[in-house]
Amino acid sequence: MKPSKIFIFILTLTLSVSVLAQRSPVQEPMVFENQQQEDRFNQLTQELRCLVCQNQNLADSDAQLAHDLRAEVHEMLMAGKSNDDIKLFMVERYGDFVLYRPPVQQNTYLLWLAPLGLLLIGALILRVNVKKRAALLDSNPSEEQ
Amino acid sequence: MNSRIYPLLGFVLLVVLLVVGLQIADRKTNLPSPLIDKPVPVFDLPVLASEGQNMSKDSLLGKPYLVNFWGSWCVTCRAEHPVVTELAKLNAVYIVGMNFRDEPEDAIAWLKRWGNPYDVSLIDFDGRVSIDFGVYAAPETFLVDPSGTIVFKHLGQLTWDVVETEILPRLANMESGS
Q1: Which residues of chain A neighbour B134 with C-beta distances below 8 Å?
Q2: CA-based nearest distance A34→chain B, Å
Q3: B32–A95 CB contact, under 8 Å
Q4: Residue of A30, A46, A66, A92 with fewest CB within 10 Å of its CB?
């Protein structure tokens, strides 16, 4: 074999191995009646947290609990439950932590309003600084160039 | 001169946030259960090693009991087993073992090998009941009062410290209350 052929051979080999090693999100075959249901299922499992591996959502996780909860979500969907019903089912059992998108409620006001507060503080600091500089330039016109 | 201190203040603030954040992250493994002060989820499950016999939530009403989720596949359950055994010896509370996501034969073998601290073990084969209890790790332990309300939950390995500081005082409270 020519060296270039060997190189290509090795390259294909390593590439194929990496493709094999890559774990695609494991999904059981789920049967839906229509595309809308499937979309809702995908959306819900992406918004719900897997509590075993807390930084993954239900769609990505391969934990046993995630399997079971996906099946649960699927079953509720097929039974005609709304998204809110399904989320409530999860929150009643696992708490707000199960939701990736925290609800706006009393104990999350700080979370939702803090960015606004920081923005205001930033604007205030900016204003004060700009004013100071303007005053400085006014009193020292020679520095202006 | 004065403005030089601001970056330092900002830095100190960030450090404080980091420390607080790390502590919260630490506690995340022990999330508060939304089931505290709520009624026990409904269940009606076959009794382990007793063919054809079932036990339901209703039949346990009227006395406090402990629900301990375990499985023969669960290493930490093995680790907490001596504590459950010790607690069972006190005869202070009726202990229900919830054998979940397990093969009954494996469960029976496990109990034979290490000893059976449970007053009864129920088979939650597909884990449905464990989902209703919001179980996401094993072992998990729930204390239920005579009215069927969950008063305490412990996530992970039960220690004697938890028994003494959390479970026994609550049981004493129930007794003096009734």
Answers
A1: 93-95
A2: 27
A3: yes
A4: A46
Q: What is the pLDDT of residues A79-90, one digit of tens each?
A: 999 999 999 999
pLDDT tens digits along A86-114: 999 999 999 888 898 888 888 888 889 99
Contact B29, B116 (CB under 8 A): no
Q: Select the CATH number that applies to the domain covering B30-176 from these four: 3.40.50.300, 3.40.30.10, 3.20.20.140, 3.30.470.10.
A: 3.40.30.10
pTM for the model: 0.75
Write the residue in B32, B131, B134 that is nearest to A68 by C-beta: B131
Q: Cβ of A68 and B137 within 8 Å? A: no
How large is the ipTM? 0.78
At the second CATH level, the architecture of A28-103 is Orthogonal Bundle (1.10)
Burial class (CB in 10 A: 0-12, 13-18, 19+), B43: buried
- Where do the domains of chain B lie? 30-176
